[in-house]
Input
Amino acid sequence: MKYRKELFKTKDPFDTKYSNMRFFRAAKENFAFQYKNCAEYRKIADSFVSPDDIKSYEDIDKIPCLPTLVFKNHKLFSTKKYKMPITATSSGTKGKYSEVGFDTGGLWCGLKMVLKISKLRQLFSLRPCRYIIFGYKPHKGNRTAVTKTAFGATFFAPAISRTYALKFSDGKYTADLEGIINAVVKYGKSKIPLRFMGFPSYTYFFLKTMDERGIYLKLNKHSKIMLGGGWKQFYTEQVDKSTLYALAKKVLGISDENIVEFFGAVEHPILYCDCKNHHFHVPAYSRVIIRDVDTLEPLGYGKTGLVNLITPMIKATPILSVMTDDLGVLHDGKECGCGLSSPYLEIIGRVGLSDIKTCAAGAADILSEVKL
Output
């Protein structure tokens, strides 16, 4: 994967203009590898295009994009499992989940990406902190990407402790949100920063409950809130970012410059980290195509459609180009005003398919049993 290495060496992680040729070469290289080594993927591709047909950067949108549902119903791999140091799954329900294998080269590329992107949002710190995680506490039977990601985020700064909202006991997860509130009140009295990590919906419900109970704290100024995973099935209760950020300031004393949001998927393991204006700029290591919901033709800036995510980061699984169940809009990066020129992605919502289950579905079932 010569060209993949070149792409992930790109110094500016948001240089999507001058990295076009590198991206094209890496994408074609990955397409050829998947085509050769995954028979199922080759059968799909043969109905549309072959690697030889991808001749320029403008041809990237012709690479077959597989719906994420394909990976929930079929296990597709392009290398032997013993060559995959790590495999991760979506949470899944009813026995359906995506399983993605990560090759060693892809993991190194991912590490370089995380270091470069996270540095821009000043997520790394040598200052110890306590983590409050609105998610699953890891255990050996949990291979979900959302759990691995949340745990991985606790290495941005040294962890004194990790407190989880969802704990595993007697073969199942149970919610302990009262324990979370008690822990935050207890830890909030010290000078040690707190870092919150989890779904924005659960973070909002926590903040709202604290507000309703009249519990207000002034946390250390280095405290942060890191949000990831979207609102999922709680979309009817979704509030705009300004409302959420104002509540965080009121309840915890955390201002919006210390609130960071992430976007990603197990089928597309690229780190999308919002800028200072809280927009998801597309990093150099991926490309985003918005497609018409009826024709699947690529759309221009400002138009709503299905979100097609492309990255040549992984070779062990044919996730080069995937079609998500998200509806989104791509904007010209110059409209943001943060200084980053790469386009930014706005997630509008999800398509209304009843059989699509999100990575938060399992957690929502557990949390719905808890009344605060």
Q: What stands out?
A: Residues 114-264+357-367 form a domain with the Rossmann fold fold (CATH 3.40.50). Confidence is low (pLDDT under 50) at residues 353-372.
